Structure formats: C-alpha cells, structure tokens
C-alpha cells in the first residue's frame, strides 16, 4: 500500500537504530463510533425512504399529519442518507486509513470526539427541524443558518485534525486515498460556505443572498459538486485503500490514479449547470456544464477500471469472499452512474429526462450501489479488525449481498421505467395536434404500479441493511472484554532530500511520463493541497464571475414586482411544506410544456425569488403560471382534500392550513431581511403586518362570497392562496384552453 521512497530516504531509514523508532498506538475507538453511527443512521435514513416511497404509491401513508407529509420527509431522507449514512461511513474509513497511511495517531483525540459528537448533533437537529418545516429549500442544503454554522465549525475541526495529523506523519509520500480525502475536505468547505450565504430573518428562517437565475446557478454548482465531493471523491479514497486491502494486492496503476485524480478534481466542478438545460439560465452556462460533464466520462471510467483491475490475479476471490462482491458491485454501480451522468447532461437526453423519475433512478444507482455497497464491504472488512474477533456470520453477509442486489435491481428498473414513461407521455400529441394526455394526473396514474415495485425493491434493500446491522451487533457482542492496543513502531519523518533532476535521457516527454514530479508533490502536502484548491477555485470562478457580473445574463422585466407581504408569507408556507419537492416553477420552451402550462419562463421573472424555486422534479404539475387559473375557493378545497378535486391525485392533504394561525407580526422581520437583500418594498418596510392583514381580509371575503368557509382571514390558508394566485401574473400569460390537471 505504501508508495516507494527515494534511495537517499531508504538509506536514511536504514541508519536509524531500533531505539530511535517512535512507538505509538492508533485510535480505533473513534473508528468504532463512526461505524455504529453509520449502521444506525443507515437504517433510519432507509426507513424514511421506504415511508416516502409508500406515500407516492398511496397518499394515505402521509397519515394526514403536518409533520409526516412527503414534502417534509423527502429532504429528511436525502440528508439522512447523504450526510448521516454516507458521511459517517466516510469518516469511519477515513479515520482508520489515514492513521495507517501516515503512520501516526490522529493529532487530537479531543478533536476526533468533537467531530463525532458534533456531527451526530447536527444530524439530530436535521431530524428535528426538517419535519417541522424549517428549510432553506435548497437541494442537499436544506438546513437553516444556525445548523449551517455548526456544520462549518465541526467540518473545520475535522479538517484541522486531518491536516495536523498529516503534518506529524512518519510517511513521506501521501498515498492516493489521501489525495481524494484532501480534495473532499477542501472542496466541501468552499461549496458549503458560498452556497449557504444568507440573511437571517429569525432563529430558523433565512433568505439566500442570491436570487433567481444566480441562485439557481449557485445551487447546482453546489448540488452537483456535493454529490461529487461528498459522495464520490471520499468513496474513491476509500476504494483506493480498502479494495487493495481486501484483495491483498496493489492498485492496478499508479499513473492512472494520477490521471484519474487531477482530471476529476478539475473537471467535476464545471459540470453543475447541466442540471439547468432549457431553463432561464443563460445558454452558455448550461453548454459549458454539458461539455465538461461529457468529458468527465473518461476520468470517471479511468477510476472504475483502476478499481476493477486491482482484482487482476484475484478474480477467483470474488466467488469466495462476500466483501469483494460488495466492492465489485459498488465499483460497477459507480461506472454505470458516471456513464449515465454525462449522457444525461446532453441536451436532447436531458430534455426528456429532466423533471422525471429517471433522475431519481440515476441518483439511487449511485447511492444504493456505489455508496451503499462500498460502505457495507468496507465495514465488513473492518469488523474483525476493530472488534478483534471473527465476523459472527459470513453466511449472513452473503444473504445481505444478494438481498441488497435484488433490491437495487427492482428499484432502478421500476423507476427508470417510470421516468421514461413520464417523459414520453408529457410530450405526446394526438392525431389532431393536441396533447395526448392533457390532464397531468393521467401520467401519475400510469406510474403507480412502478411506484409499488419501487416499494418492494426498497423493502429488499432495507431488509439487507437490517441483516447487516444484526451481523454488526452480534460480532460486537463477541468482542474481548478489553481491546488490545498493538504498539506500532515507525521511524520519524526524515528531512526532505534536495530535489536533483534526473539526467535528461529520453527527453521531456519521458521525464513527464515517469511522474517523478508528482512524487515530489506527494511529499509536500501543503503544495498538494494548494494545487487542489487552485484547481477547484479557478474552475468555479470561470463560470461564477460571468453569471454575476454580466447584466445581460439576467435581463429585468419592468412589470415584475416584489411579492406583497402576504404573498411572501404564503411563499414561506409553500417552502416550509416542501411543495418545491413535487412542483416545478419553470416552464421550458417546448411546445408540449407551453401547451400544458402556459408561456415559457423568463430570467427576469425570478429576480426577487430568494431562494429560487424552479424545482428539480414534477410529481405534480408546474406552477409557474398558476395565478388566476382557478378561483380562491378552488384552492381551499384542493388543499383541504386534493382527491375531492382530482380523483387520482397523490398530493398530501393540508387541512391544517384551515386552522393554523398565520404569524402576521413575524412578517415584518421577513420583509426587513428582503430589503437588506435589495428588494424594493416601499411602504411595507414600515407596515408589513397591516398590509398583509388588509390583503388577507379581501381574499377571505372572496372565499366566503364564493360559498366557502368564513373566519380564514388570519389562517395560513389565506397566505398560501395569495402566493398561488400571484404566480405568473407579472407578465402577460397565454390563456390555457386544455386541461391542466
């Protein structure tokens, strides 16, 4: 596993007598803690995932409660799986491998434990706040500003501990796994800070400093690269350490590792805008994202090939060892996902797939296969080493593998089918040139059998996770009364030898291909880290600066005005309920979309949207032109019981809107925060609650005049109806004659 060192360094090591060797122990207690956290949060995250899958198959599983609806639980599921399950898995493997690769105990046991308990506290805070409706409405970054600050503090403590350990290492060269850890740590820091810049409007309410087009760009600069640098590069680091350990052989190609790392780090950061094809984002930005996404295929598959060919000469072990089976399927899933990702970034493919369940299937191929199976394989390998006993049941490991594999196949086949079905039905026209399926719910009904198959697939995968948890606990119960702590001996790090260029035999090309220059970088972590940061920052700025500095990217529309105080409050209710998880507010310039939803969306329409709400999925119809389509009473009935309006709707009911009081006085602080962001609010700066009450009284009277219930003027129902009726009203809207539901 250790890279070769130079001849002068070898000589220096040989001159050290045994009495000069350092004696130390590794801290495996922190690894055990993260292992158990991975197991617990994996079960929790997947249980929530199963519940929301049931909610999509039948809305009865929303239990008609405010806190357990799909819109509130969906971000809880994604955060639990990404940051709790996969995050703890990364920390578990990172703490174990880092100490051994650097031949040093972690710099500070206190920092290690602060990292562990701080991270678990953050996860618990997410589990409490997201179901309560406290959210920033940003994909993979929903947590509100106090928790964001806590994340930054805990992450920096982890980073400080990692780099301080590297500074006191006893191994000159840093192994390839550590390259990926470095890239993950520094890039996640940059992404988290700049995406979450916001102005607080209360203890658990804030508004992004970016709006509309610029917020959409920053969100997917973050969102795509959160997948890249929290779910991909950390697990590539784990692959480069644990795969060779499992097969008891070296990585296939050192040079391919170098190519894989630097091309991936530089190219990945450009790719985010491909999530916004055909939207109000400037076309140049999404085109750049597409080009770099397509180029990403090569380094991604280079990493997959490097992982799989590490098995050379050991393929017979795949049939015998369940751990290697988990790794092989995990790396294969990585290859499939990283082929599909570039394919989905191509405009023509994206036009069909975007907003459909195809994207959900793509994400879960990576999450269930790549992240899940790599985690399971790594932990099974660690169990006997951490608990100092034999794994309780190797047969259970095999059962887990096959049950989980069947679960993945059932899940992705069902949801890929659902995604393609959605995309084709949305764009279908009949012989007369009209939409073949004008009512959006027709496409939903077609998907229900596939949604039930997803439930079955998820149940299989969850069953495998329970088997995994049982095996972990039973192995832990067989541990010795006191863990042995082997004493490790290693020579102190010797001073770096002066760099003497090799004779220029073979020319510059040979000098470059011999990668001696990279060996020097590996012996200088500060330089290596600086170059990694430079690659990430330069790539980011090339896209970010033009988006923000060139005004023509976001042309304004004179008729677009800020939301009224009541409409702003209604928008916040919409955000709290997670409605953006099911409804987009972005009509693309396709005939089938403009026929169904109305005129396509313009960049200037969302200049006051903090945050943007273009959405990433359509479980329900687009709402960008919702305002004025239906009377106020229609919305009351629809929120109270969606199936009373549309028989086959899978939307949760929101009866609590009828009884939950609206906090009129709290509207002022929200308007004030918007003013700080440059939104021109005029008189509302001094009298937002009074203005909101006046508008609420008008809407409540209209509902009562239409035959609806009275006494709604101080309820949340009025606020969200005000917001619904505002959508799309700032510009002239082409009337829709075909059904929209």
Uncertain segments: 1-14, 734-741
User: In order across it, which strands form the biggest sheet?
Assistant: 1-4
The count of helical stretches stands at: 26
Give the helix/strand class.
mainly alpha
The topology string of helices and strands comes to HEHHHHHEEHHHHHHHHHHEHHHHHHHHHH
Percent of residues in helices: 55-70%
Radius of gyration: 27 Å
Strand content: under 5%
The largest pleated sheet is described as: 2 strands, antiparallel
N-C termini distance = 60 Å
Global geometry: globular
Number of strands: 4
Average pLDDT reading? 92
Task: Give an overview in words.
By secondary structure, the protein is mostly helical. 62% of the residues lie in helices and 2% in strands. The strands form 2 sheets. A two-stranded antiparallel ribbon has the order 1-4. Strand 2 (198-202) and strand 3 form a beta hairpin. Helix 2 runs parallel beside helix 4. The longest helix is centred in the middle third of the chain and has 38 residues, at 440-477. The chain is globular and about 95 Å long. It starts with 6 loop residues before the first helix and ends in a 15-residue tail after the last helix.
Please give a quick description of this structure.
By secondary structure, this protein is mostly helical. It has helices at residues 7-14, 29-57, 70-102, 109-129, 145-167, 176-195, 212-247, 254-268, 283-295, 297-308, 316-320, 322-345, 347-353, 357-387, 394-426, 440-477, 507-513, 516-522, 525-549, 565-576, 591-597, 632-640, 642-645, 667-676, 684-705, 716-726; strands at residues 22-24, 198-202, 205-208, 488-490. Strand 2 (198-202) and strand 3 form a beta hairpin.
């Amino acid at each position: 596993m250790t890279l070769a060192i130079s001849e002068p360094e070898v000589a220096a090591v040989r001159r050290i007598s045994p009495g000069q060797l350092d004696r130390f122990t590794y801290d495996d207690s922190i690894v055990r803690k993260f292992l158990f956290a991975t197991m617990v949060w994996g079960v929790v995250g997947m249980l929530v995932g199963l519940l929301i899958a049931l909610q999509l198959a039948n809305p009865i599983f929303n239990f008609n409660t405010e806190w357990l609806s799909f819109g509130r639980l969906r971000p809880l599921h994604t955060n639990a799986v990404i940051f709790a399950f996969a995050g703890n898995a990364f920390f578990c493997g990172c703490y174990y491998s880092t100490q051994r690769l650097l031949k040093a105990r972690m710099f500070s046991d206190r920092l290690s434990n602060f990292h562990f308990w701080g991270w678990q506290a953050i996860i618990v805070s997410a589990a409490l706040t997201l179901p309560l409706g406290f959210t920033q409405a940003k994909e993979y970054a929903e947590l509100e500003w106090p928790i964001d600050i806590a994340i930054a503090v805990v992450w920096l403590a982890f980073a400080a501990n990692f780099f301080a350990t590297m500074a006191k290492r006893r191994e000159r060269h840093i192994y390839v796994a550590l390259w990926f850890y470095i890239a993950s740590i520094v890039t996640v820091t940059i992404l988290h800070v700049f995406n979450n810049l916001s102005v607080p409007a209360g203890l658990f309410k804030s508004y992004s400093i970016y709006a509309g087009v610029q917020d959409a760009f920053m969100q997917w600069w973050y969102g795509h690269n959160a997948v890249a640098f929290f779910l991909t590069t950390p697990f590539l680091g784990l692959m480069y350490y644990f795969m060779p350990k499992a097969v008891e052989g070296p990585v296939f190609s050192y040079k391919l590792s170098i190519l894989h790392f630097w091309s991936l780090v530089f190219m990945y950061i450009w790719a985010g805008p491909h999530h916004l094809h055909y939207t109000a984002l400037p076309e140049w930005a999404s085109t750049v994202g597409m080009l770099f996404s397509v180029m990403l295929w090569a380094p991604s598959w280079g990493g997959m090939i490097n992982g799989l060919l590490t098995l050379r000469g050991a393929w017979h072990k795949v049939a015998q060892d369940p751990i290697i089976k988990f790794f092989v399927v995990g790396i294969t899933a990585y290859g499939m996902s990283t082929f599909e990702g570039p394919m989905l970034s191509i405009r023509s493919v994206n036009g069909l797939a975007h907003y459909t369940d195809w994207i959900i299937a793509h994400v879960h191929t990576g999450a269930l296969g790549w992240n899940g199976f790599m985690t399971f394989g790594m932990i099974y390998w660690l169990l006997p080493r951490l608990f100092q006993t034999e794994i309780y049941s190797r047969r259970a490991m095999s059962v887990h593998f096959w049950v989980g594999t069947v679960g993945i196949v059932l899940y992705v086949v069902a949801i890929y089918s659902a995604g393609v079905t959605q995309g084709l039905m949305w764009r279908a026209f009949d012989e007369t040139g009209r939409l073949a399926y004008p009512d959006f719910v027709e496409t939903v009904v077609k998907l229900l059998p596939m949604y039930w198959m997803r439930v079955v697939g998820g149940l299989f995968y969850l069953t495998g996770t329970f088997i995994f948890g049982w095996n972990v606990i039973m192995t832990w119960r067989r541990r010795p009364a006191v863990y042995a702590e082997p004493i490790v001996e290693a020579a102190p790090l010797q001073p770096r030898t002066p760099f003497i260029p090799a004779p220029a035999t073979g020319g510059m090309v040979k000098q470059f291909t011999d990668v001696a220059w990279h060996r020097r970088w590996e012996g200088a972590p500060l330089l290596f880290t600086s170059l990694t940061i430079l690659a990430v920052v330069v790539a980011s700025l090339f896209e970010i600066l033009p988006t923000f500095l060139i005004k023509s990217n976001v042309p304004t529309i004179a008729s677009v005005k800020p939301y009224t105080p009541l409409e702003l409050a209604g928008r916040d209710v919409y955000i709290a309920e997670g409605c953006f998880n099911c409804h987009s507010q972005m009509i693309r310039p396709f005939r089938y979309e403009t026929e169904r939803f109305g005129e396509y969306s313009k960049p200037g329409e969302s200049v006051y949207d903090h945050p943007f709400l273009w959405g990433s999925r359509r479980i329900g119809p687009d709402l960008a032109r919702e305002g004025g389509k239906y009377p106020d009473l229609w919305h009351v009935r629809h929120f109270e019981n969606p199936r009373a309006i549309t028989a086959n709707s899978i939307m949760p009911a929101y009866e609590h809107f009828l009884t939950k009081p609206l906090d009129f006085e709290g509207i002022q602080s929200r308007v004030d925060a918007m003013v700080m962001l440059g939104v021109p609010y005029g008189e509302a700066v001094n009298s937002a609650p009074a203005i909101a009450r006046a508008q609420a009284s008008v809407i409540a009277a209209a509902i009562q005049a239409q035959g609806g219930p009275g006494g709604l003027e101080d309820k949340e129902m009025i606020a969200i109806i005000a917001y619904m009726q505002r959508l799309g009203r700032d510009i002239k809207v082409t009337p829709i004659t075909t059904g929209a539901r």
